[in-house]
Write a structure and sequence with these properties.
Length: about 950
């Protein structure tokens, strides 16, 4: 008859539940952090420490958080927490981008719905609506970021619309004005006819677009080659709307050309038998096919260089387009498609513009900001560029200039806000020169001096800076920082007067930049030194990328709890052409170096198949709120660090389930330690030198993990650190150390040195592991810490990582235990096979006979292998021949195991099968358990 000894076993006890209930628990933890003012506590504790400052790239104050926000802010929080726990002052100040088109567009929607004209509204009143809108969403996003567990200065964040920020933006632009780097010029820029403003490269995205394509004859007016007399030059373009702006034709100097004479055509062809035209020699067959020419001959061939001095008439010559169209050499002309001749509209293309400038060509103004042709444009005045293609075709047909037309689906620039297609449009804008003051070279030198993680970011941004044109920093909108510039009416030169700039910035600081729009502003800011009648006040605003690029000036430099330059900038990989880029140029242009020491980029979020980006239209969107209300924010945090965020990240319900499984492993590891440490005190602690080898091996592993954690934090490689910590919890602890030491913890006497050693190591393990996990699963780590260290003001987050003693490292011991663990793996495999075959029930019923090499057996000498393998008995045979049917594990062929049954009876307290069970004073127990019962004074 069995006796119940359960009450005499030291079973785990803890208030740390197996079921996390994060969705309910996390808000309670957040409220406690708020009560203790955790952020301020960290700042007070950190005074005088080395600073680590991650400068926040400002998200846009527009709408609820999406998963990209969560990825970005959680990663920032992990990094700042980790450096704080390394013993630094890692202060995080969040911020918001507030100016710009998305908010302005949203406010305009309201006007359009009410049938109002936004342009008739007082600009100050309109700007107030924009400001109120931004303020509303900042409040919402702030609470959502806090719900993710992000610690920062949420009470005093920065915003680009704060009055001091607007003042500093004006000052930074003023520095470029004063040093000659800022100038006004007319050149083609990417323009949105819907939003009526120029766009920066970072505001442009590319989508498939169907364009009308045309092949157009330009009659040769004057040519250095007799073969071209009475012939046409044929161009091909995907932008028929640019034909009114044509002023030249480009050719390739080194390309071979041919004069084609048409001999036969298809029924619906626009080609005419007998006509002659010139195209690139390599494209003759393709052009003839496109134009429905069924028969042709090559009348002549020549080189592009032979075209020097050639001039054509415009196809609409005699209809208002009575100007020469010269042929000019262009190094951008290719034979990839088209005809080998490129029509040049200097007002509608980058290459076109520079080619025209090189040859002293005037840039015509043909298209207004709303996409309508100006009244002075012949044939098409008042028509819209995106609707004019049929009229252009008809006009070309009327004069016999259209050789062919078709449709082409191709990648085309669109506004990332309105999603509308864009045009290149020549407009007067304000530019920052890349060459004046050696800005390009300073930026390139700054890139070389910056640490880029991953390293591919270096090549990406360097190639952008090497080839980028001058920076267009003006926008024709209302919601933003006004350009603090006055232009002399007669000379057209901007006023460069530091006193005026100072007056403007000082006013912005106190009143906000709305004062630029007040009546009398011109006279007020110009002061007594300049006649207001002589100057025009610029009405453009500063482009928002300059705003965010200047944040280092009004955040890092303005706050004494931060530092300049920042230790780190961190955003998505698209910011090489956005925030990293603009910050680099603003800082290098005013301070000669980047505002950051290092730049880290993460990828974008894809669906769980890794095929598509998350988008509402595809129905694959999961919001952060969906996750924290269901599973908790710690699951999101763990997803961020478990993924390799240097690449695009997969996300979806099945991935969240996998992350949930990983979380449970970590939580159960903490729970086992907390339960097993019930009642532990310093009096029970055992010196390391008195510990068994197994405990000293665990401490050695801690030295390895400590070194890895510090290196991974330096490298921003949290993916590797998570994988190693998870492996440590799963393999080294749960499946090995905990499994082995359960018996000692549960069944040894309270004062037994083995049990004391195990509990001492568990205490050390918990203290290290919970701190290492704190930046990752910040809510769970704090919950676990409180279970071990109760108190309203207790938190793991104001602690630093423990210093691991160097003498815990023992490479020789690690090498020895690697052999022991290999032997144990084979024994465990043999036991599992025997259990599956129902030869044994529990492993404690077994007595394995192990055949192993002498060096492996020697490594096991002096160790309690029954405890290590969780069996009741074990026999080792060195260099003995194993039976042919012995169990062997693939990869460990040198070790073989035969499982036999242990002799004796099952101990009713520890469940081992031993010969001495039943021979002691207590019924049904082994000698070890009898001694424990005696020490407890048990009367069972």
């Amino acid at each position: 008859m069995s006796v119940d000894y359960k009450k005499t076993v030291f079973l785990p006890r803890t208030d740390f539940p197996m079921k996390a209930g994060l969705a309910r628990k996390e808000p309670e933890i957040l409220a406690r952090w708020q009560r203790m003012d955790l952020y301020r506590r960290l700042r007070e504790q950190s005074k005088g420490r080395e600073k680590f400052i991650l400068h926040d790239g400002p998200p846009y104050a527009n709408g609820h958080l999406h998963m990209g926000h969560a990825l970005n802010k959680i990663l920032k929080d992990v990094i700042t927490r980790a450096h704080q726990m390394l013993g630094k002052d890692s202060n995080y100040v969040p911020g918001w981008d507030c100016h710009g088109l998305p908010i302005e567009w949203k406010i305009e929607e309201g006007y359009r719905k009410r049938g109002q004209d936004k342009d008739s509204v007082d600009p100050v009143a309109f700007r107030k609506e924009c400001r109120d809108f931004a303020e509303h969403w900042i409040g919402i996003q702030r609470e959502e970021f806090k719900r993710l567990g992000v610690i920062g200065d949420w009470d005093t964040p920065y915003t680009t619309m704060a009055f001091p920020a607007e003042a500093q933006i004006a000052r930074e632009l003023g520095k470029f004005l004063m040093n000659g780097g800022l100038y006004r010029g007319a050149r083609p820029v990417m323009w949105s006819v819907v939003e009526k403003t120029a766009l920066a490269d970072a505001e442009v995205e590319y989508h498939d677009h169907t364009s009308t394509t045309i092949w157009v004859r330009f009659p040769v007016h004057r040519a250095p080659l007799a073969e071209l007399e009475n012939a046409n030059i044929v161009i091909w373009t995907t932008t028929p709307w640019t034909m009114p702006g044509n002023r030249a034709i480009a050719y390739g100097e080194d390309m071979a050309y041919a004069v084609v004479r048409v001999t036969a055509v298809a029924e619906d062809s626009l080609a005419v038998p007998g006509e002659r035209f010139a195209v690139a020699k390599d494209l003759v067959e393709q052009v003839c096919a496109d134009a429905g020419i069924t028969g042709h001959e090559i009348a002549a061939t020549f080189q592009g260089a032979d075209l020097k001095g050639a001039v054509c008439h415009h196809p609409w010559h005699g209809k208002g387009y009575d100007f020469p169209v010269p042929l000019l050499p262009g190094d951008f002309v290719t034979t990839d498609q088209g005809t080998g001749f490129v029509h040049i509209a200097p007002g509608h293309g980058e290459d076109d513009y520079w080619l025209g400038m090189a040859h002293g060509m005037a840039v015509p103004d043909t298209v207004n900001g709303d996409g309508l042709y100006f009244d002075h444009v012949p044939l098409f005045a008042g028509q819209h560029v995106f609707k004019v293609a049929p009229a252009v075709l008809d006009a070309m047909k009327d004069v016999g200039a259209l050789l062919a037309h078709g449709k082409l689906v191709h990648s085309y620039p669109h506004s990332w806000r309105s999603k509308a297609p864009l045009i290149f449009r020549n407009t007067p804008q304000w530019f920052i020169s890349m060459e004046t003051n050696d800005l390009r070279q300073k930026a390139l030198a700054g890139i070389d001096a910056t640490r880029w993680v991953p390293g591919t970011g270096y090549n990406r941004i360097r190639s952008m800076i090497e080839g980028r044109p001058d920076w267009c920093v003006s926008r024709q909108r209302a919601w933003g920082v006004p350009m603090p510039i006055f232009v002399h009416k007669q000379s057209g030169e901007p006023l460069r007067d530091q006193a005026v700039l100072d007056r403007i910035a000082d006013a912005f600081e106190v009143e906000g930049s709305d004062c630029w729009f007040h009546e009398g502003a011109k006279a007020r800011f110009l002061g007594n030194d300049h006649n207001p009648d002589d100057y025009d006040k610029v009405t453009d605003i500063v482009e928002v990328w300059f705003d965010s690029g200047a944040t280092h000036a009004f955040v890092l430099e303005a706050r004494d709890d931060l530092q300049w330059p920042a230790s780190l900038y961190l955003e998505g990989s698209d910011q090489h052409r956005g925030w990293f880029h603009s910050s680099l140029l603003v800082s290098c242009g005013t301070r000669g170096r980047p505002p950051y020491e290092a730049v880290l980029t993460h990828g974008f979020i894809l669906d769980e198949k890794g095929e598509d980006k998350m988008s509402k239209s595809k129905g694959n969107v999961i919001s952060p709120k969906d996750v924290w209300e269901d599973m908790g924010a710690d699951i999101l945090r763990l997803w961020v660090v478990s993924a390799d965020y240097s690449n695009d990240l997969r996300f979806g319900k099945s991935i969240l389930k996998q992350v949930g499984d990983s979380y449970r492993r970590l939580r159960n590891t903490l729970r086992f330690m907390l339960g097993s440490l019930d009642g532990f005190s310093d009096a029970e602690r055992l010196p390391v030198e008195e510990m068994p080898e197994l405990e000293r091996w665990v401490l050695h592993r801690l030295t390895e993990l400590d070194a890895l954690a510090r290196q991974c934090i330096h490298d921003f490689d949290f993916h590797t650190l998570f994988q190693e910590l998870h492996h440590f919890c799963s393999n080294d602890l749960s499946a090995f150390y905990f499994d082995i030491r359960k018996d000692a913890i549960y069944c040894d006497a309270a004062d037994d040195s083995r049990r004391r050693a195990a509990r001492t190591v568990l205490d050390i393990l918990f203290d290290h592991l919970v701190r290492w996990l704190a930046p990752f699963i910040s809510f769970t780590a704090d919950e676990a810490w409180l279970c071990r260290n109760p108190g309203e003001d207790e938190t793991v987050h104001d602690k630093v990582f423990p210093t691991v003693p160097a003498d815990w490292r023992n490479e020789a011991l690690a090498e020895k235990w690697a052999k022991v663990r290999r032997l144990r793996r084979v024994v465990t495999g043999a036991l599992e096979k025997a259990r599956a075959a129902k030869e044994i029930g529990a492993s404690l019923q077994a007595h394995p006979v192990v055949y192993a090499p002498a060096d492996v057996v020697a490594a096991c000498e002096g160790l309690d292998l029954t405890a290590l393998c969780i069996t009741s008995d074990i026999t080792l045979k060195a260099d003995a021949e194993a039976p042919t049917d012995a169990f062997r594990l693939e990869g460990e062929d040198a070790v073989a195991v035969v499982v036999t049954l242990a002799e004796g009876e099952k101990c009713q307290r520890c469940w081992k099968v031993l010969p001495d069970v039943g021979t002691h004073a207590y019924e049904g127990v082994c000698g070890r358990c009898a001694d424990v019962l005696s020490g407890l004074g048990a009367t069972v």
